[in-house]
Amino acid sequence: MSDTPAVEVVDLHKRFGELEVLRGVSTRVDRGEVVSIIGASGSGKSTLLRCINYLEQPTSGEVRIEGEPVGFERRADGSTRRRSAREIARFRRELGMVFQQFNLWPHMTVLGNVIEAPIRVRGLSRRAALELGRACLDRVQLAEKANEYPARLSGGQQQRVAIARALAMQPKVMLFDEATSALDPELTGEVLEVMRGLATDGTTMIVVTHEMAFAREVSDRAIFLHNGLVEEEGAPAQVFGDPKSERCRQFLAKLLH
Amino acid sequence: MGNWERLVWNQRDVLIQGLLVTIEICAIAFAAAIVMGLGLALIRLYVRPLRWIAGFWIEYCRATPIFVQLMWVNYVWPELIGWPTSFYTAGWVALALQSSGYLAETFRAGIENVGRGQREAAAAVGMSPVLAFRRVVMPQVLLAIAPAIVTQFTVIVKSSTLVSVITVQDLMFQSQRLVNVWYEPIEILTATAGIYILFIFTVSAIGKALADRLRLRYGIGN
User: Fold this and answer.
1) Which residues 81-140 in chain B show a CB within 8 A of chain A?
2) Which of A114, A246, B115, B186 is the most buried (most CB within 10 A)?
3) ipTM above 0.90, yes or no
4) Count of domains forming chain B
5) Measured between CB atoms, does A86 come within 8 Å of chain B?
């Protein structure tokens, strides 16, 4: 079983009305692997990430977390049954999500944000959750801000709290949806530093990003999406250094000049 | 000053008794209005098959004069459904009805104004929609609409003077009774107005102070 991928995406389609954003994406992410998803705006990379934890319901195709399909259950006789919202919520616990806009809860302290789900969703005791929460804040180097409210933090600090909040659920996979895109340039460094640390610690990560230098340096694999399809996929050195796809070459060239 | 002492000060027990009835009936009406208003807002937002009923109800409550509603609840409901059986109940029900319509719209706007990202963040850590609503959405809604809720309470207090018409013995009722006994309206009615002003001002000030303190604490809003 150890070669079951952490996340597997099979022929994923997502349609918003007339617009087909994902047109059959398949890929897999192994445990401990860091995968970057790059591509132009509108290529479907954020939608792909949001389909993985079912914040968007895929139109067709499968997402599997450690071999288990998220959206439906496959019975022994081969028939399938759509999963309830409650069952899908159980899968989401295994997937930590970091949003572009942080989405911290403004009425809770930093520590409150971090311990909320461990207490209410995982059922940890308050004491255990506080200990876990402080450890997670330590990991993003914000232990001293535990009792502040989010509005009093800089964007970079808020995003690090959001990372700690996701980590506190001890997820199997971390999903990053353009985690630095809403930040002032001078604040992206501290967030990328935290993400680099997680990657070094062996966290399984799927990173949608415009930070090409980061993607190239930190990822084990890079995926270039174009018009809702995987256009190029491979080791960062190859995807960034010597892309086979002409579109990928053009995309990277535009960014570098 | 003799008149003030004779007509107001010496009658203070009666007036205070009336004020207590006013406070009580307003508090009950307010609590009922909050529950109904939130219920109506939730139905309108999330229960598609019943949405039109809630919408109609809200519009009805907001579009009828409070006096008509009071008469309607007091004289028509008992005929139709055998309830309410006392003037007092009819009083707070009518007050609650009207405010529930306004509060429903206030709640709805407040709920819609909480960003989608807030709920998504809750969903992403595995919260159910109900848990997310209770822990993430509702506290932010209350914080945002606190001033509007306080204002609605003051509206209830002012409307509540009408329940004296159906013989609920509130402050207005007692005040009018004194006027009818002494035929001296100036001091009694002026004092009554003063008591209402003081009461409403106090409630508003406390409400505003609480809301400001919370906002300051969270560092949000103004």
Assistant:
1) 115, 117-118, 120-129, 131, 135-136, 139-140
2) A114
3) yes
4) 1
5) yes
d(CA A180, CA A162): 12
Whether the CB-CB separation of A190 and A4 falls below 8 Å is answered with no
Instruction: Measure the CA–CA gap between A237 and A242, rounded to whole angstroms.
Output: 7
Task: Count Cβ–Cβ pairs < 8 Å, chain A vs chain B.
Answer: 76
Dihedral sign for Cα B98, B99, B103, B104, please.
Answer: negative
CA atoms within 13 A on the CB side of A66: 12
CA–CA separation, A123 vs A118, rounded Å?
Answer: 6
CA nearest A142: which of A193, A204, A208? Answer: A193
Determine the structural domain holding residue B163 and report its residue range. Answer: 2-218
pLDDT in tens, chain B (222 residues): 678 888 888 889 999 999 999 999 999 999 999 999 999 999 999 999 999 999 999 999 989 999 999 999 999 999 999 999 999 999 999 999 999 999 999 999 999 999 999 999 999 999 999 999 999 999 999 999 999 999 999 999 999 999 999 999 999 999 999 999 989 899 999 999 999 999 999 999 999 999 888 888 887 654
Write the residue in B121, B218, B219 that is nearest to A103 by C-beta. B121
Tell me which chain A residue has its CA closest to the CA of residue B139: A107
Give the Cα separation of A236 and B116 in Å (integer): 34
**pTM for the predicted model, two decimal places:** 0.90
Q: How far apart are CA A218 and CA A36, in angstroms?
A: 9
What residues form DSSP beta bridges with A68?
A: A65
Number of Cβ within 10 Å of residue B210's Cβ equals 12
In angstroms, rounded to a whole number, what is the distance separating the alpha carbons of residues A54 and A50? 6
Q: Is A151–B117 a contact, with Cβ atoms under 8 angstroms apart?
A: no
Q: Does the beta-carbon distance from B128 to A85 stay under 8 Å? A: yes
Q: Scanning every residue of chain A, which has its alpha carbon at the shortest distance from the alpha carbon of B125?
A: A93
- How far is it, in rounded angstroms, from Cα A93 to Cα A113? 15
The CATH number assigned to the domain holding B93 equals 1.10.3720.10
Compute chain B's Rg from CA coordinates: 21
